[in-house]
Amino acid sequence: MTLYPKKRSAMLALLHLAQEQDGYLSDEGMAEVAELTDTSPAEVRGTASFYDMYHLEPVGKYVVGVCTNVACLLAGGLEMLEHASNTLGCAVGSTSPDGLFTLEETECLADCDIAPCVQVNHRFVRTTTPETFDAFVTDLRSGRRESEVPPHGTLIRVRRSGGLRVSEQELVSERAAAREAREARTPKEDK
Amino acid sequence: MATLDATPIVSSRREFVDSYTLERYLATGGYEGLKKALTMYPEDVAAQVDAASLLGRGGAGFPAGRKWSMLRKAPVSYLVINGDESEPATFKDHYLVEREPHQLVEGVTIAAYALQVSQVFIFLRGEFALGLEHVQQAINDAYDQGALGKNIFGSGFSIDIVLQPGAGAYICGEETALIEALEGKRGFPRIKPPFFPAAIGLYGAPTVVNNVETMSNLPWIVLNGGAAFAALGGGRSTGTRLFALSGRVNNPNMFELEMVKNTFRDLIYDPRLGNGIIDGKQLKAFIPGGVSAPWFGPDLLDLPLGQDEVGEKGSMLGSGSIVVFDETTCPVRAAWRITKFFSRESCGQCTPCREGSGWLERVMSRLEFGGGRTQDLDLLLDLCDNIAPGLGWPPQQTTICVLGSSIPSSIHSSVVMFRDEYLAHVHNDGCTYD
How many structural domains comprise chain A? Predict the structure, then answer.
């Protein structure tokens, strides 16, 4: 919270943390974010619903995203999506009966040279054929990819360690002093 | 034959699998640019960037030096880095944040020093989980070794960088929408002009918004001088650029090439680059710069990869991403998918974009999957004309941001270039490629 000049700026980061805690955005999670950002739960919900990555309903432990945008379309993205639906046993936009997987059709994920692009919990898995996709799913089911793909909601496992711990006021006065010093050093030319 | 003489600037560490670590970065000249910059006057650093005539690498291609010079003088100002790369078929920033995060942090710090801005936000696309982790680690490492924080390298300059994850919205790549997202709101673009972020940006304070690739060029520019950068390329397009090649080519990949020195033909066909079309098929068309750009046919293959060169022919180099269509590609399906994308990603503020994109998607959908009519072709162009009157390039805007005016590009191009194929779809009552 102290990283941001205004509390509300922490909204997106806090929503990610709430999602990390519960796997999705629960009403309690959003209420907590509202309290921390000095907004109302309705404002939080209104903001969260705008963004694709926030899930307002429970989802599987693994959210599988298959890109079908133009570069992937040319490499068989639609076919991969259909294949994923068969392998996972759930329709696009829904969760598998065992609650493990949620399948999504995504927009471009910026990995177009390794198409069609597949992400699990927003990590690129680079399975471009039905066979490699199935093998990866088998790995996920057996827990062999836990370190590579954390449960849904966990986005950034590296926490911020450094930090300035200087107030905005101090920074402002430092910049102002530097500017004065510079202007004294290089007087403006008379024109 | 392609000209590949220029040494890479922003992807020079590509051969190292550990290019994202501090150890590798320091072993390959890391942070030398920043150290040199700190011995110079901030104005002189900015002057080097101006001399490099570095064009913004986000898509609009606005000169970075000029953007900086427009920053309104105020006690508090901000530098915001746009890493919300979501233009379909673009994957250069993905590489830069995941594989060269220290270069980004160094570039950003140089920019902050030149601008005398102490508070920086790096806004990265949320879908780059690994990239976010690598950049956060790079920021942590930089604090530890005194490259960030209070009084960096004993220079008297203090800087704080905060990493902000996005949450999945194409529109946040638009700089004012990104600022709204940074303020914790929905990513709704703001009306501009009259006030650009340089005058009224984050929290109403003057703000410079720069792209990840633009920033990644700065360590090299400071070390080698703006003139050395400007000597590369040609015309207004200076330096090198990351080109993202995808679609029906044998080697879809990212290539750092000197601007202007190569043509689209070199990029697509040179054995060291795209290596030709899959199965030796014929090229049908290509998108020169992201899906917002109008398409080109094979007749423009010999056009150089330069911003003005592409602009003069009625399209744009945009985000530097080239998508290749061959004879097996259905242009109607490609245009339908691009339209579906815009329809999903329209933020919903302006009527022409919100309603127009959905309407266009429905028409495209019935042409591709059955139920299309001959008069739909005129309907498509009429709808496009309502979103971007005149259907010229650059497009006329009826919306707050340029997402709206980008919608017609693929439809207009495909209807003009492949009218026969559209009519075949109508007669076939669906796609002729299935």
Answer: 2
